[in-house]
Amino acid sequence: TDESQLLVLFKNFRIGLSDRSGFSQQYLSGLETGYRNPTVITLFELATCLETTPDEFLRGVKSDTQTDPLP
Predict the structure, then answer these.
(1) Predicted local distance difference test score (pLDDT) of residue 9
(2) Percent above pLDDT 90 for the chain
(3) 71 burial via Cβ count (<10 Å: 0-12, 13-18, 19+)
(4) Residue 26, exposed/middle/buried by CB under 10 A (0-12, 13-18, 19+)?
(5) What is the DSSP letter of 63?
(6) Which of 31, 35, 61, 60 has its CA nearest to residue 45?
(7) Mean pLDDT along residues 16-28
(8) What DSSP letter does each residue of 37-51 carry, written as one string?
């Protein structure tokens, strides 16, 4: 099915990213599911492995925390 093919694709992507970044597949899975929170350094390293910039990497990510607007 399309869903099982997509799961295989994500798993293969995670394996490749794990190999390039040095982060374990379990850690990357935790980031994907929201069980882990990356540091700024981790975000920078992942963006670099994906050949993009941190700001582009995070574009479109919505925060689940509420912050006060800057004055």
Answers:
(1) 84
(2) 37
(3) exposed
(4) exposed
(5) P
(6) 31
(7) 92
(8) ---HHHHHHHHHHTT
> 32: left (phi > 0), else alpha (psi -120 to 50), else beta?
alpha
Rounded to two decimals, the pTM is 0.71
- What is the rounded CA–CA span in Å between residue 70 and residue 40? 21
Kindly state the average pLDDT of the residues 36-61: 89
In sequence order, which ranges of 1-71 are alpha helices (DSSP H)? 2-21, 25-33, 40-49, 54-58
Q: Cβ of 20: how many Cβ atoms within 10 Å?
A: 14
